[in-house]
Design goal:
Layout: E1 10-13, H1 21-50, H2 57-74, H3 77-86, E2 90-92, H4 93-126, H5 131-134, H6 137-164, E3 172-173, H7 180-183, H8 192-225, H9 230-258, H10 267-291, H11 294-307
Length: 312
């Protein structure tokens, strides 16, 4: 790791919306999405924690996904909202570094978590007799611990290196949060070597897990096709289709943004794509996993039905 030679005390974020009436309406829409995402993911975590019917490996991993989405959207939207309402787009170097670290940490954990969820479905459908052995509580905890540790190492390395680079050009970041690809054009030295490091990390945390997920679901879909029970086939296909939808929403914009050559990137395009995976996806995930899931809907009735006052 290079020695820090940083004289910059902070940056300015261009933000997402212009200070116009249309911008205000879009801002209010994002706040509404944030509240829906916060409520939806919080509800999923409480449901899975309180309802013993959901105390299974699949729902444990789903509760972790809801936690990641909750942390994810909370790491970007509140600061963006404060900047927009106050008219002050500045962000300190420490706050920027904290945002980079949180963003990379949570994104890395979620990428690996989706792989664990794919493995869970693979074992449940392709090796049902060994499910309780292969997907026990210890295995789930090991998966989560491995995801957190590996993502922590990756995020701390990138955060420290990014903050140590000399920013002698403009301090205005064309984004609504501190994102490494948006910050590199501000560096006053050649960053081509580091650009390849970012692409390598993206391959490690995005492409490799994505290929693992596709391989798992290739086997799963093959097994579903050869199921004799139409009811079992329908249930398995519904569960897998929900997960594949979430995987597509997460990986597609991420891979398109971070695995391209810097010369092919567009700041406005990257910023618009970031809205999808930092704001929209955390809202959509709990909706996708609840509306078509009878077990989650049943848990909603059991948990919140108990808390509602009964008529005399």
């Amino acid at each position: 790791m290079q020695e820090c030679n940083q004289t910059t005390t902070g940056f300015f974020l261009l933000g997402l919306f212009p200070p116009t009436k249309t911008g205000l309406h879009l801002f209010l829409l994002v706040i509404l999405i944030f509240l829906i995402a916060f409520l939806g993911n919080s509800t999923m975590i409480v449901l899975i924690w309180m309802d013993h019917h959901l105390h299974t490996p699949m729902y444990f991993l789903l509760s972790q996904l809801s936690l990641m989405d909750l942390l994810y959207i909370s790491s970007t939207v509140p600061k963006m909202a404060v900047n927009y309402l106050s008219g002050d787009n500045s962000i300190s170097l420490v706050a920027c570094g904290f945002q980079i670290f949180c963003f990379l940490l949570i994104a890395g954990v979620e990428a690996l978590l989706l792989t664990s969820m794919a493995y869970d479905r693979y074992v449940a459908i392709c090796h049902p007799l060994h499910y309780s052995i292969l997907m026990n509580k210890r295995m789930c905890l090991l998966m989560m611990a491995g995801s957190w540790v590996s993502s922590f190492i990756n995020s701390i390395c990138h955060t420290v290196y990014t903050l140590c680079m000399p920013y002698c050009k403009s301090r205005t970041i064309n984004h609504f949060f501190c994102d490494i690809p948006a910050m590199l054009p501000l560096v006053c030295k050649d960053t081509s070597a580091y650009d390849y490091t970012v692409i390598f990390s993206s391959n490690l945390f995005l492409l490799v897990p994505f290929l693992g997920i596709m391989a798992s679901y290739g086997r799963v879909l093959y097994a579903i096709h050869h199921m004799r029970s139409s009811q079992g086939k329908k249930k398995a296909f519904t569960t897998c289709s929900m997960h594949l939808t979430v995987v597509s929403f997460f990986y597609a914009p991420f891979m398109y943004t971070y695995m391209r050559s810097p010369s092919l990137r567009s700041p406005e395009e990257d910023k618009n794509l970031a809205v999808f995976y930092t704001i929209l996806t955390p809202m959509l995930n709990p909706i996708i996993y609840s509306l078509r899931n009878k077990e989650v809907l049943g848990a909603l009735q059991r948990v919140f039905g108990k808390s509602l006052p009964k008529k005399q």
